[in-house]
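Quick one:
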Amino acid sequence: MNEENSPVKKLKGLYGVTFLIGLGFFTMGLMDPLYDTYIPVFLKKFISSRGLIGSIMTLDNLFALLLIPVVAALSDKTRTRIGRRMPYIIVTLPLTAITFTLIPFSVFKGLATLIILIFFLNLFKQSARGPVVALMPDIIPGEYRSEANGVINAMGGIAAITGTLVLARLMDVSISIPGLGYIKDILPFPLAGLLVILATLLLFLFIREKRQVDEEKTEEKTTIRESLRLILFREKGKSAFLILVSLFLWFLGYQGILPFIGLYSIEFLGTSKGTAAFAAGMVAVSYTIFAIPSGIVAHKIGRRLMIRVCLIALSIITFLLFLHHPAMEILNISGSLVVYSFWALTFLFGIFWGSVITNSFPMLWQMACYNNMGIYTGLYYFFSQMAAIVAPPITGVIIDVLGFRLIFLFASVCMLAAFILMGFVTSGEVKKKEKLYD
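Output:
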């Protein structure tokens, strides 16, 4: 085998391209935690009802549910000199950066201005997400997408850490605003917006979308609706549909815990408000560290096996989280050891969670062709965002009726159910002779 064309050599050569593609994903990871953390703070200046604030905060999930599948599918059919994804990216990402930058300034104009900016921010951001994510499988060969997705997820994790641990601290820094004087709660947003503009510029300058050689011959003359029908019901075993239902289940478990983990830390672990986010932070840290290795391991042992092993691990870990508090009481353990042991479990959760996310997307992409890659990307987000919308109300009711710890048992059951469904999946692996877009 020619050393230049060896898999290892080729993989190393793809990391640089993947890093550049991952800049788009980095922008999302940078803005999302700042949005989730501080938009409620801004809204609370005008709205006393937490329920109303929570309703406004669901706008991003609703826009994601509606826009990502549609825009991603539209980009499949777009043909321009700069590609089919890039026109959407270079328009929507800068508009996202501008609206994101203006968010804290809108507070001084009143609630109506803030709401309008939140509306347009979500409109632009969720319109960008589908084409940004679909760009990677367009360019990276099918056999290397797990590793590439690991790189991209790692960049998203680094962005989340940057947003929460670096930029967020700048909320306490006063800056001089003409006509307003020295004001806090501003700086992270324009800095994040500037980074988004820079990332968009680098994407545009250095990424060239591939054009399928036989695109004109293979282009499907079907509507988006017909394409969806073919994707969900065409194949034996309906592997794509099984994966989509499985990811709905594992996101249902994850999103059911996520909104309440800080409150659980305060009430059951006795943490301060300042350290209540550390449990979720442990997930982000381990997710970032192990995203790339998980893609490499999946390349060797297979994506489905990797996902199923990780789902069993997640089911066990969430069950241990369910047992954690009574176990600490039985063992008469208190103080910092209770907190550290809980964080250790959430750190472990992040390792296996990141591995599931890293390898599930490539399984769907492997079933796609050049002309419907965006539709598959949109379906992934449709099912995951649907879970994000319905999970918190379900686990909220569980907390009210059965108790706080039962949300971990709920997550454990969801992961186990996803494990069972994934056992019936028969597609999504790279065959020896199958190298898409190579």
